[in-house]
Design goal:
Elements lengths: L2 H29 L13 H10 L6 H13 L13 H36 L4 H15 L2 H15 L14 H27 L2 H8 L4 H38 L5 H11 L2 H29 L7
């Protein structure tokens, strides 16, 4: 199967995947008792009925879903039931902040993971290796929202070393640490395993026997081949960081897409929930597709069969 056919096949599968996610989210959301206007005590029954009719919430769920899909096909995500703002504009404006935060976290995780993993492999069974393995295991065991809460409590509240994030003072240090901690640990362990495997290959031993300088052997032969498993993880990692930043953004009160998603759930803002879910699902499948294509470019021996 050539690259073009593979891309077309994956795009079709991506459309089906996003549709399934959309349907599950929509019907699950509407299956929960209550509605977006149930908690509005200041609204009279007449006003509530008018709002339900205006947003098509008085229709059967199946008909609501069909209407939503028709609007979605035209790029219309609807408007927020709480603010009246366009959902599409809100998502893309908020995603700029989330993308900046996620991009920095991914870059930190990738660089730190490659350096630590390579160091651990080259110094196997020595104290740097043991220290790196210990901290990478610890990092993998701590959820990002737990680490975010600890960082906020210690460095912002107790010590006051880092100011709390605000639109005027956009300090991304602690959120980036919280988001990059787990993927950094995973990349560290992945790089170490891949490096050890590469260093034991015949071509590396041959290069050393020919007198090739050690640094050239490490960076030209071992690290290059060790990067292949890491590359396959980068795509899902980026999507995971961006989707996993939902709670972290809420903890640090960052006005990104995560905050909008959490607020939409708390207020039963159906269009906001649907819009953010579809956007994040699309982001996930796109990043996985890009990762597979890059994997093929880096290692032409990989086939798409």
């Amino acid at each position: 199967m050539n690259l073009a056919k593979y891309v077309v096949k994956r795009i079709l599968l991506a459309i089906v995947t996003v549709f399934i996610v959309c349907a599950i989210t929509f019907f699950s959301m509407n299956a929960i008792p209550g509605g977006p206007f149930e908690g509005e005590k200041a609204l009279s029954p007449e006003v509530k009925a008018t709002l339900m009719e205006r947003y098509n919430l008085d229709k059967p769920v199946g008909e609501q879903f069909v209407l939503y899909l028709k609007n979605l096909m035209h790029g219309d995500f609807g408007v927020s039931l709480k603010t009246g703002r366009d959902i599409g504009k809100t998502i893309f404006d908020s995603f700029k902040i989330s993308a900046k935060l996620g991009g920095m976290a991914a870059l930190v995780a990738l660089i730190a993971g490659l350096v630590l993993g390579s160091t651990a492999a080259l110094m196997r069974n020595k104290w740097p290796d043991r220290v790196i393995v210990f901290f990478s295991t610890l990092a993998a065991a701590v959820p990002s929202f737990v680490l975010a809460s600890l960082l906020l409590l210690v460095f912002c509240i107790q010590l006051g070393w880092v100011p709390v994030w605000s639109p005027q003072n956009q300090n991304y240090v602690l959120p980036v640490i919280a988001l990059s901690f787990y993927p950094m640990a995973y990349i560290t362990r992945l790089t170490k395993t891949s490096m050890l495997d590469a260093l034991g290959q015949d071509y590396v031993r041959t290069a050393r026997a020919k007198g090739v300088p050690q640094m050239f052997v490490i960076f030209k032969h071992a690290l290059r081949n060790a990067l292949i498993p890491v590359i396959t993880y980068v795509g899902p990692m980026l999507a995971s960081i961006l989707t996993g930043s939902l709670v972290v953004e809420n903890i640090f009160t960052i006005g990104g897409l995560g905050a909008k998603f959490v607020t939409g759930i708390n207020t039963r803002d159906y269009p906001m929930i649907m819009g953010t879910t579809i956007f994040l699902a699309t982001l996930m499948v796109v990043m996985n597709l890009i990762s597979d294509i890059v994997y093929k470019i880096v290692d032409p021996r990989i086939t798409f069969e």
